[in-house]
Structure formats: C-alpha cells, structure tokens
Amino acid sequence: MSSFGRLYRVHTYGESHCKSVGCIVDGVPPGLRLTEEDIQTQLSRRRPGQSDITTARSEFDSVHLQSGTEHGVTLGTPIGLLVHNKDQRPHDYAETDLYPRPSHADYTYLAKYGVKASSGGGRASARETIGRVAAGAIAEKYLKEAFGVEIVAFVASVGKVALPFAEEDDEVLGKEYVDLIKTVKREEVDKEITRCPHKATSTKMEEAIRAAKARDDSLGGSITCVIRNSPLGLGEPCFDKLEAVLGHAMLSIPSTKSFEIGSGLRGTTFPGSVHNDPFTQGEDGKLRTTTNWSGGVQGGISNGEDIYFRIGFKPPATIAQEQDTARYDGSSGTLAAKGRHDPCVVPRAVPIVETMAALVIMDMVLQQNARQAAAALLPPLTHLPPTMVLPGKATVDKVIHGESVGEVQGQKTGEE
Amino acid sequence: MSSFGRLYRVHTYGESHCKSVGCIVDGVPPGLRLTEEDIQTQLSRRRPGQSDITTARSEFDSVHLQSGTEHGVTLGTPIGLLVHNKDQRPHDYAETDLYPRPSHADYTYLAKYGVKASSGGGRASARETIGRVAAGAIAEKYLKEAFGVEIVAFVASVGKVALPFAEEDDEVLGKEYVDLIKTVKREEVDKEITRCPHKATSTKMEEAIRAAKARDDSLGGSITCVIRNSPLGLGEPCFDKLEAVLGHAMLSIPSTKSFEIGSGLRGTTFPGSVHNDPFTQGEDGKLRTTTNWSGGVQGGISNGEDIYFRIGFKPPATIAQEQDTARYDGSSGTLAAKGRHDPCVVPRAVPIVETMAALVIMDMVLQQNARQAAAALLPPLTHLPPTMVLPGKATVDKVIHGESVGEVQGQKTGEE
Amino acid sequence: MSSFGRLYRVHTYGESHCKSVGCIVDGVPPGLRLTEEDIQTQLSRRRPGQSDITTARSEFDSVHLQSGTEHGVTLGTPIGLLVHNKDQRPHDYAETDLYPRPSHADYTYLAKYGVKASSGGGRASARETIGRVAAGAIAEKYLKEAFGVEIVAFVASVGKVALPFAEEDDEVLGKEYVDLIKTVKREEVDKEITRCPHKATSTKMEEAIRAAKARDDSLGGSITCVIRNSPLGLGEPCFDKLEAVLGHAMLSIPSTKSFEIGSGLRGTTFPGSVHNDPFTQGEDGKLRTTTNWSGGVQGGISNGEDIYFRIGFKPPATIAQEQDTARYDGSSGTLAAKGRHDPCVVPRAVPIVETMAALVIMDMVLQQNARQAAAALLPPLTHLPPTMVLPGKATVDKVIHGESVGEVQGQKTGEE
Amino acid sequence: MSSFGRLYRVHTYGESHCKSVGCIVDGVPPGLRLTEEDIQTQLSRRRPGQSDITTARSEFDSVHLQSGTEHGVTLGTPIGLLVHNKDQRPHDYAETDLYPRPSHADYTYLAKYGVKASSGGGRASARETIGRVAAGAIAEKYLKEAFGVEIVAFVASVGKVALPFAEEDDEVLGKEYVDLIKTVKREEVDKEITRCPHKATSTKMEEAIRAAKARDDSLGGSITCVIRNSPLGLGEPCFDKLEAVLGHAMLSIPSTKSFEIGSGLRGTTFPGSVHNDPFTQGEDGKLRTTTNWSGGVQGGISNGEDIYFRIGFKPPATIAQEQDTARYDGSSGTLAAKGRHDPCVVPRAVPIVETMAALVIMDMVLQQNARQAAAALLPPLTHLPPTMVLPGKATVDKVIHGESVGEVQGQKTGEE
C-alpha cells in the first residue's frame, strides 16, 4: 500500500529513476493558507548533498503544486504534488547487477514482484520519501496554526556514539536528555551538521561518520522526536492506539529497525512504583503528570504531555567495501558497490521522522474531531452513577459537550 | 478503530465488565477445518490465574463459535466468536474512583470519550485481547496447514533480569540467544512458569516477580517472537512494510512500549560491513543469508529467513503500593489500588504476541496471493533488459508466473 | 466484506442456521442514551410472520446488547449485538439439494467459496440483515437527537401495481407522490399491511400479493425512502458522492435491482430547463430550491432539501411453482421449492432500507464533522478574490468558521 | 474521498482550472505490458470537442506516465499519471459569479468546504474523470489479457428517444435490446456520433440533441454497459455485492441519477416464475442460465453470464437559457450561463462508464484471487455431508482446490 491515513490520507508514487516522484494529499482542511514555499522547506532539509558527511549527489528537489489550492488557500480538495527526478544515473548501478545487494531490497523486490526497476530496490529508495515529506509539511502547517503543535526530531545516536540517555543506572532517563526533549528547537538541531543538538556528542558523531566514510563503511543510529502541544485525547483504541500508529508510521521509513515510546525498552526494567507518572494539578487547573515516562500516551490515547519516541536506523546496506556474497544465480562472488552513497542516513532522516509524526497527529485530530463534534450535539446527560462520571455535579454534561476536562476538574466535589 | 487487517479482518468488542467480549473474523479462507478447541488452546494460555505469579483472578474463558462454519469446516463467511464475562466485580474498583490511576487509561479515556466504563479504562483492559487471540488462533491454524508456519514467542526479560542477548560487546547478538530464536518450541516455553525457556534466567525472573509482588510493586519486561517458514515476499511497501505492520500490531497490545525487528536498536550501533547479511546458496538452491540481523525482512518484504522481533512491556500501572497523586478534581491524595492485579503481565502476553503475529502474516499472505495469482495469468514477458531481469534465459517469465525464485536461480547465466 | 462505513462502521456475521446473527457497531458517539428497546423496534418491523401476506415463519428476534453501554449510555466503544437463531429447520431444504435454485445464490456461493452452508445461499439469506437493522437503529436514534433527522420508507410498487408517480406525461413527478415524500410518517406506513401509505394503491397491492401467493408465485416491487432534516454538506466527492454511497448501501440489500435518486430515470427524459431546481430564499434566510428533482443532492453533496430515492426489488427467487432447470450435475429436472417463503419481500424490506439510509447519513455526518471542526480552528481568511468567496465582506471567514451559509447570505453585496 | 478500490486502488486529484489533473493507480499487477498509448485511447474518447453535438471546447488531453513502469512493463509499484490543463478560461465564468447555478455543485461545494474554486463546482467538474479513465484503461488492458474480458458501453436513451427496450408489455426485455447487449462491439458504438449503435434510434437522438442545443437547452439520457467473459465468483458479500459496488462506481460519475442491474426496475414488475433464470448445461459442461434477467449477478456474486446494467444521466445543469433563480445573497435574479457547454453529456460519458466497470471488476478479481489462492493451499476436504457439497464423490475437494465448478459438474453422480 502506498497510502497512509484514514481521514488525512497520503498516496505516493515514484521510483528513483522515473520521471517524477509525488503524492496526492486528501483530507486537507479547507481554508488553510498554503504555498509551495511551505512545503519546500522540509523537502530541502531532506534532500541529499547538504553536507560532506551525506551523499554527494546533488538533487535539488523543487516541489510543484498541481491542485487543491487557489490564491494560496486550500480548497478542501485533493492536493497533487510532484518533484521531477533530475539526477538519473542508471549506469552507476549497471556493473553490479548480477548481485542482490546484501541487506538491500533487490532480492525481496524481485521475489515479490517478479520484475524489478533498474535501480534494484524500486520503491525502497529513500527518494520515495519525498511525497511523504511534502504531505507532512502541509499537516504540520495546519497543526501549528490550529493548536500550536511543535514537532522536533534530532539525532540521538550514531553508531556507538550516543546522547547521555541516563547518567545513573537507577534513573529512568537522565535530566539532560529529558531537558532536550522538553525544549530543543528545530533551529538548534539544524545548527549541527549531524543534527544532534548536543555539541559534544555531535562532534564525536561527525568524527565517527568521517571515519566510516574513510573505510568505505556505513553507520546506523537513532533519532528522537518530540511532539509538543498535541491535543489531549488522540489515538483510536484498540488497534489504532497512538503509539501503534506512530510505530507503524516510523517503521515504514526505509532502514528503520526499532521504535520506542517514552522511556521505551529501558523503562521496562523499572518497577511500576518508579515508572508510573503521578498526576498533579497544573497551573491552568488541568491535570498534568509530574514525570512523563509514558511519553505522553496512556491507554493508547494522548494525555496532553509531550509525546516523544526514538527510532533506530540500521547502517546503510550499500557500501563500497568488498563483501563476499552470492549472485542471483547462487554462485559466490565479491561485491563492492559503485556510486555515491550516504555513509549515514540519520541526519537526513530527521525531517522524514517529523513528517510521519505530523501525518499521524493530523489524522488522529480529524478522527477525534469527528467524535467530539458528534457528542457535542447530543442533549445533556444527567443522573449517571458516580462511577461513570467526574466528581462534581453535572460534570459529565460539560465534558460531553466539549468543555475541557481541566475546567471541570476545578470543581468542588464536597457535596457528594 | 476496533478493526485490524485488510483482507483478513478482525473486529473486536467488549469491556471487562459487560456481558461478553468477542470478535468477528472476516476473510477466513473457506475449507479450513476449525472447531472451538482449535481456538480454546490459545485462549487458555492467555487467561489469568494460570500460576501464582500472575493475577489470582480465575476467569475461565470458554469460546463460543457463532457462525461461519458447518460440520467443522469454514464457509468463507464471517466467523462470530464470543466469551462470556463471568467474574464481574465492579465493587473492587469503587473505593478508588476519585483518582485517575497513574499511568493507567482512566484519565485519557474520560478525556477522549467524556464518559467512562465503571472499570475505568474501558477497552484498555487486557480482557479486550480475548477477541484478538481467538482470531489469531484461526489464522495460525491456516498458516500451519498451508505453509507449515511456526510462531513461537517467549519472555526475554523481566525487570532487570534478561536473557544473554550478547556475550561480547562486538557481536551483534549472541549465539545462545540466536539459537533460541532458531529452535525454541512452544512446549519448551510453557514448561517454565515465566515462559522464558532458558532455565537459569527463568529462575531469576521468577524470583524477581515474587519479590515485586511481595512489596506490592510490578515489573515490566520484554518478549521475543519468531515466525518460521513464512513465505517469501510478504509486506506491502511503502507504508505497509512488514516490520511497520508488525510494529503496529505489537504496539496495539496493552502496555507495550517498544518494538525492534531483527538486531533492533543494538544492531544500529554496528557498521554496515558487520551488520549486512550476505547471500549464499542454500541446500535447496534458493538464496539464503549467512547471518540474519535483518530479522527476515529487507526493504519491508520478507526474505524467507526467520522473522523475529522483540517487544517491551512497561510494568503494570495498577499497584497496591501507595502513590501520591492527584484526584480528578485536582486535589492531592494517596492512592493504593485494591483488587488482584498481575505483578507482571509478560508471561500471559506471550500468546497475545503470537496472535498478533499470526494476524499480520495471514493478512500479508492474502495480499500477496492476490498479486501473484493476477501476475500468473498474464502472457510471458520477453526481450527485457538484463538490468530488469534475473540472469539466465527467460527467467523473468518464470518468476512472473509464480515459480519460486530459487528454482530460477539454479540456471546458468554463462551464455549471456 | 461484511463491513460498512468509514467512521460509523458496522460489521456483521451470521447465516440463517448458525447459533446467532449479530454485529459490532464501531464509532458510535459517546453519551447517547441507548437501550435494547431502541433497537428492538426496527428489528420487530423487519421480522417475518407479521402478516399473512409475508412468510409464515415465526421468528421472534430479540436483540441482546453485549457491550459498549453502561447505565443506558453509550461509552464510545464498540457495541456488540446479537440475536439468537431459533427457527432452525435445515430439513425444510433437504429434498431439493440437488438443484441450485434459479436466480438464487446457491450456485454462485458454491462457485465462490467451494463449500456452502446447508441453507444454500449462506450469507445471502435475508436473516443477514438483522445486524444491519440493529446498527441502523442506533444511527437513527443519534441522528434524530442531534439533528431531528426523519427517515421514512414506504412501498411504492408491487408487481405492476404502483403509486401514481406522475399524472401527466409532461410533469417530472406528480403532486400526490411528491406530497407523500414530503409528509408521510412511519406510523401511516405501518397502518397498511403492504406498507404502502396510499390506501387505494395498497388495496390493489394486497390483492396482487394474495393472487401471486395463490398461484405459488412471487412478486417484486419498489420502495421509496425519504430523509428529512439532513444536514447540508454531506457526501464526500469524488468517489463517495452521497448518491453513490446511498446506492451502494441500498444495492447491498438482498434482491435489489435498481436505485434512483430524486427524479431518477424518469427525470433523465426532461430537458435541463425543466429539470433544474432554481434557488430561492427560504423563510429562515437560507437558500432553498423551488423544486427538488435533484433529490436533495447536487454535485454529490446534500443541499439541505429532502433526500429521496427509490429502490427496486426483484420477485423472490424461491417459489413453490415447478421450474424446469438443471441440477448441479448438469442433468435436467424440475424443481418446486418446499418450505414457507415470502411471496413478496417488499413490505418487510422497508425497515432495512431505512436502516441503510441511517448508516450512510451517520457516517457522512461524522466525516463532515471532522472537516468542519478542523476548518473552524484556523485563523480567519481575508483578501480573497470575489470569485472564490461569497458576496459580502469577510463572508468567507464566517463560513469557514462554521456559521451557516444562510446567515451569510443575508448580507448586502452592494459595495462590491 | 478521492480514492476507489480495495486492492486495485485509484486516487485522483485536480480541478478544471489547476495545473494538471491526474491519478495514482496502486495495485497494478507486475509484468503487464503498458505504454501511454494504451491509456490515451480511452482518454481521447472521453475528451470534449469530438463532435459538434458535444461541447466546442477543444481540450487535447495527453497523458504523461510518471512512474511504475520500465521498458514498457509494469513493476507492481504505483503508477503516477497526469494530464496538463491547457484550456483554462476562468473569465468565461466571471459574470455569473453572484449566482449558484441551479442543480449545479456551486452551492453545495461552498456549503461543504467554505471556500470554492473559481470554476464553482471544483471537483464536480467532468474534468475530474480524466484520472479515472486513465486508471480504468490499465485495468481493462489487464482484464483483457488475463481473461478476455470485454467491456462495451453504449447510449441507450437521450431525452425521450430510447432504444426499443421491449416490444411487448409481457416481455421482460425485448430481443433486439438483448441482442445488442450480447454482441455489440466498441467500434460499432463509435461509428455513431451519438454512441447509440442502433442507427434508427441514433438518428433521432442526434436530432433531439441539435434541437435542444438550438434552444439553449440540455438533454439527459442513459447508458447501457455490458461486461463479457467476466470470471465467475466476483463480488464480496454482504456489503460489497457486485451490483452494490458497480452501483457505487457508476453513481460516482457526475450527473448520474439511476443504476439498474439486469432487468432493472422493469424486471421488478414481473412475477418470479417469469423473472427467474433457469439453469441448463452449457456446451462446455458448465452450468449456464437460459435467460439472464439477473444481469450476470446472483446473491451479489457473478455467475459467469454477461453482466449488464443501465445508468441514467440528468440533463446538464448549465444552460444558456435564462433561469429565474436566487443569488447567493438570497435576492432574486435571472441567470443565463455563458461559455460553451455540452447540450448532452451522454455520448462522452460512454468511456467513463466503461472505465468504472473495469475498476470494479479488476478489484473484485484481485479479492477473489486472494481467497482462491489461499483455499487452494489447504489439504483436501473429505467426509462432508451432501447438503454441503456438490453431488458426486469428493467433488468439494476439487472445487476447493481451485478447479472450475464446470469441470466438476461434468462428473457422474450415478449413486444418486
């Protein structure tokens, strides 16, 4: 399926060597101001050739808006977008055609489809992500204007070089890392060539990438992403829990190997008494949690805290080092990839992670909108048992008619 | 959404205290022999009260088949299934109703829906998984009969007690762990009370769980699952890559916090030269990989190797220990959960992980079936460039008409 | 697929001779008061044995609510529903098993699935509609409470006996028929044994049905349905135009052969100058149309007028008359159906038509809610060209923020 | 939703005055030979300006294939397609902007979205159908190559001029009309300027259209479509019966008002004894029906006979005649449309009907493929009761393993 989303739907097309790559975005709310520039920014952050530690291919990816807007405003109709493929170099790949590249999609694409694009992996190319990034940029713009949502991703590890996730064995996550999650801005991320906004770590990462490049090798890594100011109540249990759909979205990005929400796998080593996030009353009267090991999601539904997660990326499969491996015909041989390839894709994957986060949140907002707007049209509920409602008179009526839970919580419950 | 799957579709209903929980399974192939016993086995492995380290609640969950079979054979029509709720004890929960339980779904369900079930979390209850397990048992039976697919999950860690994932820093995963993945059987898993089939580790896990129970605390952990003999070519790029849909499925299980395919996050710390899985010719002439750090998936498509992954589960949120936390009305208080709760859900989650794996593979099989059967009806392809086809005469014709890639690979390519 | 809908989703199961038939309804807004009685009413209107011109089988279909409500209020979680199968008489069918019944589903079910239920048509049984009717009853209750929506279906023709659709050749539809559409109530429909609320026609229909029954034959007919007070703006172009989804819904009812919206096929014989519905200002200031040949839908979107359509039902295939037809093995023979069968299903299909209408409108309301609520959160639009906006200052801002078009239309446009 | 289909999926974008209109086609089987010419043929049959009885606008619509093929062969990946918009004349529409056109989409689009494209109806434009036609042309090519499927649509009525559907009151449909359905070829349809392949009727239709054009009026009509050589077993009960999805598809075409399968509404006036289609043994041993009033579909599933249906189109709403109607602001006025408009769209809609038919059949083929291929992998069934299986020993085993029902029926059943 080259489609993602239920109400905010993205459909993509395009291989690396065809005429263009692009997408259709369906379900964009009408009345959003939108121009090609809004989309170009993220596309440019994604493209190769931005620094000498990524691939040297220079693909300038200009987006062309085909439909769905007039006078810079969305019509509510599908938005067609495309980016022409310019740097088509099929000959780069020709010499090694007898081999399926190890850990690459050559073999599985051929097995699945019976034919394959000259580029080998076909839609497994990172170029496929252009359509997603464009679609995500529109979602991000909406979310920012409607809710002030902020989505920031940053490189958390490259090979064995990692941010200080925790300083002590007995802390779930360390203060420095938690602070980054709470406060880091996209501009700070982009200041570093590695997109790791922690200077000391970034320097080591850069060294590691250059060393890998020098020995014709590649490095994996991980990216942490935070979504701030997300509305409360997003996620559609049971199968479309927020973390499940975020996981789906992130693991659909090429080369991803892991997804962790909140404290993640590390968090599973702590007991409930440490890991639970107690509630407290926030300044605005709403319930907040004092810690956020849940990563902003409880029971598959956003709780109003920062939503954060980390995604692992394997080292790129295509390396110039010689590898002993079989040809398609089963005979043994030695393969050394030609062409220019990323020694480490993680820095370039940052906007792709952000875009997938935006797609998920956008779709969940629309789904929850549909429910809340429907519930708000019903007559007030009364005479319900206290096990079913908030403490305080008639509070359910308020909740059900769309008032914020926070306001309701400010009420006295003494009279019960 | 309480639905999962595109062609093999499961729809579930039911909270913990309503009349019944159940599901409709649509898309079951006709002509499969199926009885209630086929389903009951996995349901019984899932239910509480199986040992004294899980919850003491005794829920005997008998499945009742409503439709979709006659004379023990599936008709191809939807299968309705239900399990009556017997142990309804709403009063167990009543005293603590003024509090949203920390890290539980009480607060988010109320925020999302405006009303809540008396049990608090509503569909966040583990009882919701009964329908899934029933549906997965049918899928598993089909996959076993049609392909000999074997799905085995086992507990890999509990709190800080874990299997030896690697013995040395410079190995991606250790031999002992890899061997478990390759060979462990479900019976061996069930021999251990912890469902960790590594005696030494299991003993330590049991101790850790008993200790946590003694101090009214809870423990998280992780489960590794392997799918053996899966057909080659499963997964629907770009958005429905096999690992993306597996991740979605697993992260929809209550309490999950992480998903890793193959070497996972640990694998991202190794360079491509180490992490790549070289190809070799297998005994049957088909291409195989010498290592399997990819976890059986490349480019989002299964490559015929074992598919394995690990899922992290947080410690259960409901603990009898006192917790300082706010009430719904914002006031501070102290909450100590009443009732009987699992100190550690990981052993009971083993069949749930297996069932979700079966649901994903089943759906992917049907999707790939549709494509292959369609391609097989087309006239042979000829005169295609070698960059597009397998080396060897007319091999594309064979591949495209559904013959195995392996057979094709045995051919000579010298004459070109 | 045994599922219908995008946000308000119904999943059904059950053949005529299995344990139960039922459904899961997902997407029900939380906070709706709902009991089994709300659902039973329509189920009872659907069941056989209501009069001596329908089948004599007495199936009392009591609905059992399984989940999704507490204290008579919907939780927003899936609602499980079932009706036990009581009158299981497989032997009624046994003698004729060598024959696929002409124009029945026996042959096509066997061809499609390779196995068949003992009842022959499996899910083609009218009993399958029980789940739909239950789901539709919930939708109808919501639509009535939220918008005052009224859905009324009635029998428009039986065999060659029909309502006076037009009195003159040159009128699109006649006044008497149009008035019925505008005003008829469900109670008036139920007063007639035929469910045709036009006394003279009903009497003739009854005679026709009794005559058909007497000669062991069957009759088809048609049903007109009207949806009043539907919100403006429903329908999701381009593929999910309101009439397209209504057509899909109606043509999924067993035995249906035709669907017409508004003036239907007859309307296509008139020129645009006669068939167009001119606009006028209504009493409330909103635009209304002076005629309604469009049937309440323009460009696939509801325009606020009554939505009405007519569905044709073929004569029931199962008749007691002898029919010359081949057996499964190809040999010629003579088949005379045993058992009790409806000579005319049209009267009993009335609530099924209403239920499918409710399912469609409900789903469309939720989809449009999602869009409108999203648009309402955006900042106001200004400085748009007059070709894009309503005449009158800043009117777009108002429209886009959810105010009714009608209010906006009251403004002066002189200054432009 | 601008998407159609479950496994063969089409997503479209584009209004009449934006940069391009186009689509993404996902789910195309790999290994199909495909070039732009294959698609252009149907696009050219669809475009305006083909004769002086359609609109005078000359839009030459050249399709540009963007992705999904290499060396003229489909890769199994999504196919991106676009057609540039050339004849953009927004000023043609400017003078009448104060009015919502009667029976047009202007008013409902504005009500739904709050903003509207300068062309008024936005996606309600017939230009939106370009993407569908392109996608359908690919489906048609596959169906022809794989099964020899033939899809032919033709104009059946224009205004009050119609084909002789029946010569006698007591015949369901007349021989001449039935013969056309059985035998007419696309070339014969295109020989007539009206696309009605019945010379005498076509001449009258042409006169009627010229007369309507002369008085600045418009005419509706209807199109009959037949699908020959469709595989047996297509259609997905209960909600996705073949006629339901065909109805959905057809009623999503702009201006459609009715859909009838087989004998349609006329057929509902006949008793079951006349309307039933008896079975007989065909020359190839398979069961066939002696009549085909069912239109090739029984129980929602294709039975191997010709699938035929008729769709009604309303007269175009945009006419140059003066119409008394209200402006957006509610004031009364007189509107006379400017620009060049089709007096009758029915001839141009012929390829659009064919394309929607191809999309439906293609998707249903893939869904049934998935089921049959899955069932074929199961072990043989034995010892089933005769009520469940075909007469004759072990025949179910054969059916379930994918052999044609016809072959099975040829077997002896002597023991009966």
From TrEMBL, chains A, B, C, D:
CDD domains: Chorismate_synthase. GO terms for cellular component: cytosol. InterPro entries: Chorismate_synth, Chorismate_synth_AroC_sf, Chorismate_synthase_CS. Homotetramer. It catalyses: 5-O-(1-carboxyvinyl)-3-phosphoshikimate = chorismate + phosphate. GO terms for molecular function: chorismate synthase activity; FMN binding. GO terms for biological process: amino acid biosynthetic process; aromatic amino acid family biosynthetic process; chorismate biosynthetic process. It is an enzyme of class 4 (lyase). Belongs to the chorismate synthase family. Keywords: Amino-acid biosynthesis, Aromatic amino acid biosynthesis, Lyase. Reduced FMN (FMNH(2)). This is Chorismate synthase. Its EC number is 4.2.3.5. Pathway: Metabolic intermediate biosynthesis; chorismate biosynthesis; chorismate from D-erythrose 4-phosphate and phosphoenolpyruvate: step 7/7. Its cofactor is FMNH2. Signal peptide: none annotated. HAMAP family: Chorismate_synth.
